[in-house]
Amino acid sequence: MCGIVGYLGDTEAAPVIFESLKRLEYRGYDSYGFATLKNKEFFIKKGEGKISDASIQNLSRGLPGFMGVGHSRWATHGKVSAENSHPHTDCNGDFLVVHNGIIENYQELRKELKVKGHRFRSDTDTEIIPHLIEEYSELGFEDAVKKAVSRLKGRYAIVTLSRESDKIIGVRRGSPLIVGVKNNVKDSSKGSGKGLSKKRKEYFLASDIPAFLKHTSNVMYLDDEEMVVIDRTGRGIKFYSMENGKEIEKRIVNIGWDPGQAEKNGFEHFMLKEIMEQKDTIRMAINQNMEDIERISKDIKNAFGTFFTGCGTAGNVCLAGEYIFSKVAGKHINFIVSSEFPNYHHFMTDKTLLIAISQSGETADLLEAIEAAKKKHVRIISLVNVMGSSLDRKSDHSFLINAGPEKAVASTKAATSQLALVTLLAYACAGKLDEGRRLLIETASKVNDMINPRYEKHIRGLAEKIHSKENMYIIGRSLNYPMALESAIKIQEVSYIHAQGFAGGELKHGPLALIDKGTPCIALVANDEVKNDIISNAVEIKSRGGYIIGVAPENNEVFDYWIKVPDVGNASPIVNIIPIQILAYHLAILRGHDPDYPKNLAKSVTVK
Ligand code: M6R
Q: Residue 163 pLDDT more than 90?
């Protein structure tokens, strides 16, 4: 949560930072702040609300200089206010810091610094960092940062500037921070960069790649416990280990994403754009090295206990994976939700295999699960979207799901890509890789046919009927039970309708009491062995007055509203969740909410 950016180059920093930050807004959108540095003077501006609601002209005015930082906040410590928004400075305004993450020992450090005479202006944990740098400033900027950071506990990434230096420093410990490098600057922007060589590099620091993708797809990854120092004077970049202070060699990697993938491209919202991209992304997810698929599926088969872990939507994919492996491969895999993993892993050994699923690869709960597993020497296989993310780097083997940047808070295309890959692995584990591939290629092509404007309009028609309801329920059985849970998350997070998913068979054990006349209930149906049972559950709801929405390959007399999905056998979770994503999107719009920025949430949950 929170997005941080830094820039050092040959163009005016403020507009670059503003644009970069807008692309990171999905990480936090309570408030924002910028700072630039010119002639040993800081220029700072802060505001409440979304940065995209602010005007670039107003913000850039009075922010001169070719280096600077920016921050988009998701409040953790201290209310949403201009004082609490970043950057934060030390007593004399010599150092400033933007920060993503949590400093766990900030209270004791704050007490200690106050006793030493430091004056605090905000309620944040972040503000102790510039004061600590100030405290050690006699060591010089780089060493002061190292010393300050050695006092901090928690997971975080910071970017810091010193008024007296031409350097921008970033530190990563548990929260993402990536460096973008643009080579061969052809031309300096108007009025700037006089005397700069045409071959000088531009550097970007950011919590996520889309922030600078418009400028470059060349990145250098910082690992945890590493510091990067970018020097404007020599235009050099150096990486250091925070553990032993030694310099580290880094490669530039091209991540192969195209800048257009991180833009709305004519869609009003990222969420709808990403839903529509599922026409292609399912096929891209299964575009894997088949030898790797065979090898890892053998490992899964032979492991002495294989587990899935993930959070939120990725967690629902894990649960679906449990069912898919059971049904397709006759293999027992348990799902442990990542936040509970540290409380339920004591029996694991070096023969255990953990499959971690995550879009961002930066979710704090998931990374903690990985750490706990690694302490037990468990092997980690990941299904992840972001190349070079913490999860990707910490895994023994990662499969990239190739969905391209997912920016809406609600996970849509990443979820179906993860489902496709899990299904492929299950088929491979059953010794039926070709059958699995054929099924998924057919599914991808049927999804392509399914998602069209007429289909969207039909679902919008349903949203118009039910958008004023305050409760909704979703039922599924077998492979579609996890999709009932996933449907509930989608509807809750963007429309704020209270939605709950149940296993169809559980209704009579309690939830049936919630059904009133006209309560919308969605039944997720596939042409499988539980079809009749789930239809019976729908009948039970209908006889209590419920309004039945059937998501199914065929219509049924119990449905009050039917949304047709293709019949794709064991790939039914993929096709059944897509209409619910579209429904959630339209419910949000009709209720006047911005589906890309749900209240209280952020895309990447990098705090515990
Ligand atoms: O990046 P991850 O896949 O690890 O994120 C996990 C969850 O935070 C995420 O799926 C969340 O539940 C989504 N907002 C749901 O749409």
A: yes
| Residue of 2, 311, 429, 521 with catalytic role | 2
Which regions of 174-299 does DSSP assign to beta strands (E)?
A: 178-182, 202-206, 218-221, 226-231, 236-241, 247-248, 253-254
Rounded to whole angstroms, how far apart are CA atoms 85 and 77? 10
Cβ–Cβ < 8 Å for 338, 365:
yes
CB 299 within 8 A of CB 437: no
Give the model confidence (pLDDT) of 131-158 as tens digits.
999 999 999 999 999 999 999 999 899 9
* 217, 257 Cβ separation under 8 angstroms: yes
Summarize pLDDT for 379-415 with one digit per residue, the tens: 999 999 998 889 999 999 999 999 999 999 999 999 9
Q: Which residue's CA is minimally distant from atom 12 of ligand 1?
A: 312
pLDDT band at residue 88 under the 50/70/90 scheme = very high
Q: How high is the pLDDT of residue 186?
A: 53
Q: Cα of 596 to ligand 1 centre, how many Å?
A: 13
In the annotation, is 603 catalytic? yes
Give mean pLDDT, residues 275-301.
Answer: 96
Query: Which CATH topology does 264-450 take?
Result: Rossmann fold (3.40.50)
Residue 308 to residues 19, 324, 343, Cα–Cα distance (Å): 37, 12, 15
Look over the chain and give the mean of its residue pLDDT values, rounded to a whole number.
92
Calpha distance 335→358 (Å, rounded): 14
Residue ranges of the chain assigned to CATH 3.40.50.10490: 264-450, 452-608
> In angstroms, what is the span from residue 224 Cα to ligand 1's centroid?
22
> Of all protein residues, whose CA lies closest to atom 14 belonging to ligand 1?
410
* Mutation to probe ligand 1, out of 359, 365, 407, 486 (largest number of atoms < 8 A from CB): 359
**CA angle (608, 48, 6) in 5-degree steps:** 65
- Residue in 387, 491, 581, 605 to alter for ligand 1 test, most ligand atoms within 8 A of Cβ: 605
The preferred substitution site among 27, 274, 313, 600 for testing ligand 1, maximizing ligand atoms within 8 Å of CB, is: 313
Phi-psi region of 56 (alpha: psi -120 to 50; beta: other; left: phi over 0): alpha
Multiple choice CATH, 3-260, 3.40.50.10420, 1.10.260.40, 2.60.40.10, 3.60.20.10: 3.60.20.10
What CATH number was assigned to the domain covering residues 452-608?
3.40.50.10490
Using a 6 Å CB cutoff, which residues line ligand 1?
311-314, 358-360, 363, 366, 409-411, 489, 493, 604-605
E strand segments, 166-266? 167-173, 178-182, 202-206, 218-221, 226-231, 236-241, 247-248, 253-254
pTM over 0.70: yes
At 326-350, the pLDDT tens digits run 999 999 999 999 999 999 999 999 9
Please tell me the distance between residue 92's alpha carbon and the centre of ligand 1 in angstroms.
40
